[in-house]
Here is the input.
Amino acid sequence: MNEASDPISDEVADYLRHLVAERGLSANTVAAYRRDLRRYDQFLAQRGLTDLAQVSAVDVSEFARSLTDSGLAASSVARMVVAVRNLHRFAVGEGHLEVDVARDVSPAIPRQRLPKALTIAQVEALLASCDVTSIEGLRDRALLELLYGTGARISEVCDLDVDDVREVRADPSAGLRLVGKGDKERVVPLGRFALDAVDAWLVRGRPEWAGRTASSSPALLLNSRGGRLSRQSAWAVIQRAGERAGLGVHLSPHSLRHSYATHLLDGGADVRVVQELLGHASVTTTQIYTLVTAEHLREVYRSAHPRAVR
Here is the structure.
């Protein structure tokens, strides 16, 4: 940017000198402002604007939106918007502008990424991919059934001990106690499929692996050396199951948790109930899943209703 080429460049140059002479900012900070404001100047030039007096609040908002859409980190977007707001405030303070159009402009909020939920058929394929004739397959099936049957985080399932499931095995109505973030406890129902998978693992699989170490681990889920299954290893189990099932989709550590919540809401569960089951401190966190369900309903409507917009 040639700082003497147009009124905006002149204003930027005056502002940068102000940062050095009157505010005493470091050379690196001023250089960052210069880069950010160069980008703003170029954006305005593309819109045919060569004077800050021509700029509206809409123009500033569109600049903020363009930064977000370009994929920049939220921190970088916020820094650039602050630089633009400070430039306009400076210009008003110097008497070069009458109105500060950038005063109320904030960084654009990135479009919310919805959690990816598997279909029920995909979940069933994932579970069926475990070879329950092997010890590893019994362990993997128990892990996956627990994750999908309770909506638990991977860490919560890996932290379970054999004693934690003793009561629920004896009385399924008792529920399973999980310890979540901040050591907050919650009790969730455990369905028959998950209970059967846990029983099969405890009876036919775990005893052999537990005997491979001198000091027996209290952990419910073990690795092949007899130690507690780690979160990283549990995540690898999910990935391998997805590959065996041929799902062809990216699985995240929370894929089964997302699927659990989405399928409950699709089935008519109240969002407050799902909040408690997931252990969310705020219902706002849980409500993201209602967006998934709403989008599913729109897709069904568009594909099935004869008067829907296609």
